[in-house]
Amino acid sequence: MLLLLISSFLTITVVCAVSQQPLTRPTAFDVQGHRGGRGNAVENTLPSFAWGLIDGATTLELDNGVTKDGVVVVWHDEEILAGKCQDSEPAFPNDSAFPYVGKYIANLTLAQVKMLDCGSKRQNNFPQQLTYPGTRISTLQEVFDFVECADPDHLMLWNIESKIDAANPGRTASVDTFVKNQHAVFAASPYQQTITYQSFDWRSLVEMKKLDPEITTSALVEYDTTVMPDNGVSPWLAGLNLHNFSGSSLGVRLAKMQHIISMPAFFLPAHTPLITRSQQKRWSIKRITWGCW
Fold it and tell me: Are 227 and 242 in contact (CB under 8 A)?
């Protein structure tokens, strides 16, 4: 079993019980727990990752934000949404930033983020979700430590996304801060070699490759980050101009762009067949489809 001891709102200590059985992995295919097991618990929280492990995930997918004081936390949204979290009390007396719900993570310190209760609200689109009142947003290091209890052989794979807002730079930490701080946590972890680094902001992929040429990276795409209303250059695509790439479809043009920046994986919605198998082979792209069931 996993024992989670919350010694304060700011520190989480994970203790591995001696009876914990090592993780086993099926070999036929990879099961990714999207934001942990968010059908069972609020996404990207320790209870959600626990459920991902229980349900047999072989890869844990998660998102990163960076706090005002530079700590890498595991959370999807740029700001603290009232639908997922609620305030408890200020991190310190007369805190002008309180209440924290509605604030951007980039404008809150870790101490402030740790005061939020993100386990008491069941999400409307997951009616069978369990609640875990008092659950705090975790740092990436805390998530690694938590999973290691169930995975002492470090077989778990990770799919970690940088949540940088390329269109609205003031809402998230800079690319430089994001990548350097994430890489520091990656490099200190026994999971470093099992991480796939993904982002809609291709600038972060390019910068991460400079720090770690061996890391697996994945270029995320969606229509809104590639095609601009004014037909201009997208801020998401590392300076590449979609209009400079020809092709029979949007997918072919994006694949050519991805090939330029040497991203070996290309994440696409399962219902969007943008490139063919022969095109995948030609550009050495691993096409990974996703969907929710």
Answer: yes
Tokens of residue 123, six digits? 């999400």
b/e per residue 33-52 (b: at least 16 CB within 10 A)? bbbbbbbbbbbbbbbbbbbb
Predicted confidence at residue 15, as pLDDT, reads 40
Gap between the Cα atoms of 134 and 157, Å rounded:
28
293 against 259, higher pLDDT? 259
Q: How far is CA 131 from the centre of its chain?
A: 21
Residue 8 has pLDDT above 60, yes or no: no
Q: How far apart are CA 183 and CA 185, in angstroms?
A: 5
Contacts of 19 (CB under 8 A, 6+ apart): 1
Q: Is there a contact between 66 and 73 (Cβ–Cβ < 8 Å)? A: yes
CA 98 to chain centre: 26
- The tokens 């998401």 sit on which residue? 236
**pLDDT tens readout for residues 215-256:** 999 888 888 998 898 889 999 999 999 999 998 888 888 888
More confident residue, 259 or 110: 110
Chain Cα centroid distance, residue 11? 21
* Pairwise CA distance, residues 139 & 142, whole Å: 5
Distances (CA, A) of 111 to 9, 14, 62, 139, 253: 8, 19, 21, 11, 44
Phi/psi at 242 (5° precision) = -55, -35
Q: Domains, the chain, ranges and CATH?
A: 2-73+139-220 (3.20.20.190)
Helix (DSSP H) and strand (DSSP E) numbers for the chain: 8, 10
In which band, very low, low, confident or very high, does the pLDDT at 6 lie, cut at 50, 70 and 90? very low
The confidence score (pLDDT) of residue 26 equals 59
